[in-house]
Amino acid sequence: MQRIAFKMKVKPEKVEEYIEAHRHVPTNLIELYRSAGIRNLTVFLRGSELFLCLECDDFRAAQNRLENHPAEKRWQAQMAELMGTDTDLQPGEELAFFKEVFHMN
Amino acid sequence: MQRIAFKMKVKPEKVEEYIEAHRHVPTNLIELYRSAGIRNLTVFLRGSELFLCLECDDFRAAQNRLENHPAEKRWQAQMAELMGTDTDLQPGEELAFFKEVFHMN
Questions:
Q1: A34, A68, A104, B63: which sits with the fewest CB atoms below 10 Å from its CB?
Q2: CATH number of B2-86
Q3: What is the value of ipTM here, to two decimals?
């Protein structure tokens, strides 16, 4: 089992819209994520800074399963309007991943 | 059940020492955290940036139980040598808490 974590930014003026959108995540999107093996996904927010963590069996496989699905494409298009620029993203990095250095069940 | 998340900083020159310390967290400290109701605690690292998330029934009660325990005091004294300054901490804030805006089991 993998624990995946990464950070993102919301445009400061879009924070309320981001929160509101996450009160109404489409049921079929949640089902899609579950069917891709994603579990225990939490989105945390501080100011305009986001931290996302999730568990899955194989994150790369999950991404492959999601990326061309219409429900995911619709959601990502909606989110793209709200997301800011993460200045900390390194060249060639797709997401600003953290690595796990400790876990206690 | 509460999901608690906050960020911290490690001194850039102490990152390796921080990682190494977390390979050898004392067993009695882990038992203490569990007995305080803390579960599923993960420490994530990116550069010198830390993100910690955990589950517990009552974080305030857990903190009260931990704060004067010798095992916790020893650990916090060891960690204090390694921790950097989080410039994002607001006046009066004890930790740089995030709030949960979405969760999917």
A1: A68
A2: 3.30.70.100
A3: 0.94
